[in-house]
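$ fold --in a.seq
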Amino acid sequence: MITVQDVLQRDSFRRAQLVAGIDGLGRPIHWVHVGEVPELGQFLHGHELVLATGVSLGTAAARTRYLTGLIDAQASGLVLELGGYLPDVPEDMIVLANRHAFPIIVFKEPVRFLDLSQDINSLVISQHHRVMDDLETLSLKIRQALLNTEGPERLLAILTESIQRPALYLPRDDGEPAIWAGEWPTTPGPFESIALHPEPVTTPEPLVRQTVMVFEKPMGDLLVKNPGQVVDERVYLALDRTAAALAQDFIRTESLDRRRRREEAALLEPLLFDEDPAPHHIQRFRSRYLISPDLAYRVMVMDKVHVERLRPRLRGMATLLELDQTDRLVLVALAPRKKISAFPDALRTLTGPQARPIGISGMYSDPANMHQAFVEANDAALAAHYLNRSPLAYEELGLYRWILGTPRQQLERWLVAPELGPILAREDKERLLQTLEVLLAHIDSKQSASHVLGIHRQTLYARIRTLSDLLGEDFLAPDRRLALGAALVAYRFLTLPPAP
């Protein structure tokens, strides 16, 4: 980038003097333009260094209109040849230029504008050629990195080497880590708006940002530090090329992931859904994943939203295989037995309490047992919904393992009806069921039971008499309490509203 400061150091400007706008020496120059008309500003594109003799600047009004037009058009500065038309720079021009940090440079002796234009424009063109050469070198390194599948870390390193500024990629997905290149004491962002092209960011420090887009979806933001007031052309183009390369790398990764998931689905489907899978399906799984006595697996059932957020972290814990279903994903986590044994606790550490259920099977080694593990994962997900406790592993289900493994009709005929039938036939069944549940939980303290129910103790005794008439006088004996507790759990589960 060529600036006013660079131009002042040229031999052609050896006799020039800066009379105003010293704070604007960092303004970039894209071209040189000669113009005297008062409305010159409307014919400029911005970043032009204007050369003039002052022929139209004889009045204060004309000078204000001329100079204001240049400032509004984002011109780089004004070079004046003093002489017959304008013997000196008027104070009103100096004040206005200083107010807007707009450089005014003067030649007190005649100067050939053609020589100045050729010198500066040749410098701009030479600089542009250097930028193009650097950009071609950057593009070549980017192509090599993409062909060698070196990943986004290498792409950011190439960008930093090219522009000599720190770079940072911030994914829009909270589950993915940022990628750093160079020194970044603080992390900027996050950003919600979309920058289709490089644009300046002023806080917390001067940056340039461009959003990485894939199929019109923002995937992340690419940032570089920008010490100047404007975006350098070289930085602009390098940032744009790197953002495009990151998008290509993401598409490549996604394509490979889709292919891998299709292969995994073909491998998992017969093992998950067939109670007695064919031996060659089992052998294919063993061969592909090098199953050994030290390895074990668990099957998980979870909402797709969970997987998008957890996938990168789960892959750091185990080999992760996926089967996409309509409304959820089935995952098989394969790792050494010690890791798989502790997998439910590790998953809870990652997720925290979840509103939507995550079910985890028991631990298995033989691929022939994957169908059973799938059934267990589904049972754990159902229990997690009922208990509002997720993630939940099959070994943590307790009584629900038996309830979930027993057909509904058998539960009702063998357990619920014999134990709770007299209560369920009454209109006030819910009140009596609640009383029975509290009594079983506070068997040693009627005072605690009445407090939990929010009723007087005499009212509790009246309900106990009703329960005794319906269930028998021994309903609080140890064996009956065990049967009634199991029946209550089964009844509540069977009457659970369907999962959302």
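$ fold --in b.seq
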Amino acid sequence: MDASGDAGRDASSDASVDADVDAGDPGSTYDGLCSVSLTYRATGSSPAVHAAGSWNDFSPTDDELVDDGTGSYRVTLELAPGLYPYKLVVEGDGAEPWRLDPNNSYRAYAGSVENSGLRVLDCSLPTLVVDSSEISRPTSGDGRLVAALHYDRREAGAFGELRAELRSADPARPLSDAEITRMGDSLGVSITGLADGKYTVALTPVDVEGTAGPSTLLPFWVEASTFEWRDALIYLVMTDRFRDGDLTNDVPAVGALPGAEFEGGDLKGVRLAIEEGYLDGLGVNAIWVTPWNTQPAGAFDEAGGTGGVTGYHGYWPTEPRGIDPRFGDAAALTALVNAAHAHGIRVLMDLVVNHVHQEHPYFRDHPDWFNSGCICGTAGCDWTERRLDCLFRDYLPDVNWENNDAGEQLLDDAEYWLEAYDLDGFRVDAVKHVVDGAVFTRACVSASRPRARTTS
């Protein structure tokens, strides 16, 4: 039975991420600016179209998109790498002139105003663009990946070295000369003879001056039948309450309410259950694991001051990229993911994006990243009416996703987890309490950002 699909995608080919980035002249001198184009398609009229963004103080007249004669309007800008909020100003078609770019689902904020987000990548770095990819499995033990890419020089030097490896539960190995073909700026990848399981091809281009660009990651599965998330049987694992696999990381009680202490469940316990076939017996092919972020040490008041609760559940992060030692460590998480993949099970991390714990360094170092709202559910602070700025508890600062720096940092952290531990995706926690569009549009494209380009 064949299993095929798209093994990867690249940011520079996706208008919703970076608009339309032009290749630069490799012989020119990089001046810190990169060419980026915006396009707009008009229907039934001939409007005047301008781009108003943070680069031109939101001027409605400075940057005109010019009609090419077919109703397709375009402007090319020279901007420094970064994220720019903007709107299109379209006059003459009878609709509201100031509008979000219909070709761009990414969002950025200017103050509290929602805008389209124009991401300009660093064109001084060599970049690979994925043109196509296909996975097949003619027979068991002969999984195959065939992918085509090209080198986007932009302002970088000519294509020099390529660092290429195949990652899996086994130690990563370099791709062989037979698995990589190069013709000028075109690149082909052809890998055969793969056993069933999860793999990632990692490709890092280096120009002739020795400058490395962002890695392009092509994660893919070899399996007898195509996996569909809509048909998945997902098992929610609350790690601390699941199984105690490692008695050495258990901790004494701290005087919390009955049932609100850590009880010893850990990542090793989850792995052991997978290896024993417990989840296979239930027909599970995906697990949603509660957050393993580091939690505060003590107990904190429950609603109404009824007593203490610990962070056994995992939803009070005190570190952006730390694993709570009561759950395990990096090796334990890696072993869990590898075991799950060996059993054909996807792993979803429960991603906390609405809040942090008051001990978190982001709250200490960047107080402007957080709202100063009321406590959800108290008088005058309805859970729905104040959903975007109310705090779950006074010790859980609420992230302000209208602050672009805060949103970008949380996405960097999400990408870290995704790449470092070969995860298959996220369940986004408390999404009702995050500004509409911010999580979904950003999360959908976070895998396509400059640092790493991934799909699963």
